[in-house]
Amino acid sequence: MRAVVAVLLLVTAAHAALWGLFQEKQSAPDFRGTLPSLSYAPFESGHTVADVAADTEKVRTDLRKLSTLTKAVRLYSSTEGNELVPPVAAEFGMKVTVGAWIDKDANRNNREIEAAINLAKRNSNVIGIVVGNETVFRGEQVPLENLGSVPEIGVPPEESERILREEAQRLHDAEMQPDENSSSGLSKRAEAIKWAVAENNVHRLIKVIQRVKKSVNVPVTTGEIWNIWRDHPQLANSSDFVAAHVLPYWENFTDKQAVDQAVDRYNLLRDSFPGKRILIAEFGWPSQGYNLRSAVPGPFQQATVLRNFVTRAEAIGMDYNIVEAIDQPWKFFEGGVGPYWGILNADREPKFAWTGPVTDPNYWKIALVAVLVGLFMSLPILRLDRPTVMQALLLSAAANGVGAWVATVFSYWTTHYFVWGSAFALSLGLVLLVPLVLIAMARIEEIAAVAFGRGPRRLIGKSAALAPATIGENVKFPKVSIHIPAYFEPVEMLKQTLDAVSRLDYPNFECVCIINNTPDPDFWRPIQDHCRLLGERFKFINAEKVQGFKAGALRIAMDRTAADAEIIGIIDADYVVHPDWLKDLVPAFADPRVGLVQAPQEHRDGDRSLMHYIMNGEYAGFFDIGMVQRNEFNAIIVHGTMCLIRRAAMDKAGGWSSDTICEDTDLGLSIQQQGWLTHYTNVRYGEGLLPDTYEAFKKQRHRWAYGGFQIVKKHWRRFLPGASRLTPDQRREFSLGWLNWLGAESLGVVVAILNLIWVPIVAFADIAIPDKILTLPIIASFIVSLVHFVALYRLRVNIKAGQMLGAMIAAMSVQWTVSRAVAQGLITEHLAFARTSKGGLSRMSIEFQAFWEAVIGVLLLIGAVVLVVTNGYKQVREIYIFAGVLVLQSLPFLAAVSIAILENSRINEFAFWRNSAIRTAELIGLRPVSLPSVAAPSQPVGSEIRRDN
């Protein structure tokens, strides 16, 4: 244990060291001066313009802090609280450039214009007016009502007609341009129309600028993207100065290119308008959000870009305004970066320092969370029974990995702003990810135990029973009563089962064969005769009207069981047991604490078809991996057939119950809750038959899942402390087992459907893009599941790689089936018991057995394609990751489709593959061969009628 403790401390130290090693530090020029101007909106965190107007004291608090950073502020509106800013700014000696917001609302425009004029007249610290903000760029056409010199009068009719004629002529001239492609990718006609529309808007905006200039004595301009000024020079000629917005992020430039691009744009405008004052009215970089092609936002990028820009601008004498002073969380409609342009966060705290190395001020707080969570999640390793160093190393590394993810989530939560929709989406995503992470951790634990643990210690082997019988005349052979329930089973198959029982190498047993609810004499009379033929050990019961499904039949069998029978054996009607089944396993009951011994299922018809071959591989994984590991904690899943139960334990647990449709697992758990020991052997002591069809395979899995959920609902109270004799390890194994199976499959479907619903929101609304903290864990969990399956199959299951791959597909294919069963379990209490069709007599359904899986799988793929196509311009990495998640989530659904198609195809027959190999050999000249004749399939006897209910 000391070594394990040392490993935990070593991994924790290494985790902390990695945080120290990867701490990002960047150099940037120091800036010790005061910024010339900052964009400012007087709203608190979470408030929008429409929500609440600012009050004077809050504005004063903001400007007191900003006065230490800047000489002036720029406003974008003159109403709804912005009118409070100039007089308060004067208290701190700050200048103000007021703004008039212009859009298509004529009445609001007039209010904005008059308010801006009044602020300029009444406040001597107002140094300019910016009429409109990117009005032309946004395509906002100023209403004609706003173009007159007197708001109450507006534009005279003849003037309005002249304006409209000029605008119509520009559009007509543009439409006359040739429809040829230009260098921009648009046709010359499209480019001309685009320019004409903008030019019309420019002319209207100029009239508003002229209207304001006549009313004030301060410079008047408008705020536009730099290329609008370049393409419409008359706008600059009509303005007192050029207020150009240069935002390299929106032009897809990297943070390394941003400053050079801004300076280039500044020089271009200086050259275009010599003698004109050029103000870079907006320059900035977002601290959070999603990338736009090569432009990546981030706190380090923001700090280095702004410090480099300010230093460069001061050196060349550039006049500039930084956007913006304070983060604006209400700007969620401006893509993922909208709220994050401030140099202060919404709590008015600085995001970075203007001198010294650029670092994350919260980095070590996040690192501490990661290390502490990792250490806390590593502590359960100390409870393991004799863990190895490698086992502890893998588990601790995984725990610290989860700790790092939790810290990342904490960092994301504390550095991002959320409207109710995004907060709900993130919260829901995290709630769904918690069980997903737990499932991944449980699988990593199983990998560590199998690959690096000390190996099974409680497993009953072929050569070493727990309590071998004493040799000699005093050997004790407790009587075993073997029960075989049957319901419309093929007669010849059931005869094989009875014959195998008759050959058991054990002196003291009886066999009770009960056929229930099978009125057709062709099914029960031959079995009755066969039991008579086999002798007095074999009892036959024909129970025509049995309530309670299979459990009801087994209760009747118990009533007919010999009074001196101490052990009850259960086998299904299709199982051919080996002679040494009882001889090898009954000695385990010499320990009076043992209540149950379970042997695995095996199948003798795995070579019927390729589909059955991969089914057989899928079943083997549970019996060679999961059951072996659970056995170490006395927490096996009882699966009925090949099971031996101490009669006293069965009676104490209440016997067979019809409360669930998985009566065997229900009884096994009840026995364990009474404190009995259970044992498992992975030695095959018998072989049964696989489900006939993929439909039968899915029905069987549905019954198991629905029954499992019934058991959860029935027994969950007994998992509470003191409610039963279950040990903590047993409670843990059963809880994680249910979560790992029922939870994982259901969660997979729920998350897939939710993601599918989210696709149009991401693709077309461009909001609420799932962040990496939500999508990468899904990918990581898929990788863990893949490694878990492959590694444990290679270590524990003796099958070929091809069969293992098929088994993986078969296991994935029932995700929808299991999730449907869980959903039905949530809303219903009982379903009818469904017999699994076996024996080769069932005909395939004419219905396609993976219809809904096909629908969901295809929709997920279409969703991924839609995301990729609509992301072609922005190339947001998170959207590509989200698309990849949808592809991964489609795989279980498509796995079901592939098996359903395989079942009905020629390639499902092994004869096809043998013949193909022979033909290939002949074609390449390896050896001349002749095709073997294929034997005709055996025909069922006339009395063997197909029954599926």
UniProtKB/TrEMBL annotation:
> Which Pfam family is one of this chain's hits?
Glyco_tranf_2_3
Q: Where in the cell is it found?
A: Membrane
Query: Is Transmembrane a UniProt keyword of this protein?
Result: yes
Task: State the UniProt keywords alphabetically.
Answer: Glycosyltransferase, Magnesium, Membrane, Signal, Transferase, Transmembrane, Transmembrane helix
Membrane-spanning segments: 363-382, 394-413, 419-442, 738-761, 773-795, 850-873, 879-902
Q: Tell me, what is one Gene Ontology molecular-function annotation carried by this entry?
A: hexosyltransferase activity
Q: Which reaction does it catalyse?
A: a 1,2-diacyl-sn-glycerol + UDP-alpha-D-glucose = a 1,2-diacyl-3-O-(beta-D-glucopyranosyl)-sn-glycerol + UDP + H(+)
The EC category is transferase
Q: What is this protein called?
A: Beta-monoglucosyldiacylglycerol synthase
The EC code for this enzyme is: 2.4.1.336
Protein origin, superkingdom: Bacteria
Q: Which residues form the signal peptide?
A: 1-16
Kindly give the membrane topology term recorded for this protein: Multi-pass membrane protein
Q: What is its main location?
A: membrane
Q: PANTHER family, from UniProt?
A: BETA-(1-3)-GLUCOSYL TRANSFERASE (PTHR43867:SF4), CELLULOSE SYNTHASE CATALYTIC SUBUNIT A [UDP-FORMING] (PTHR43867)
* Entry GO terms, CC: plasma membrane
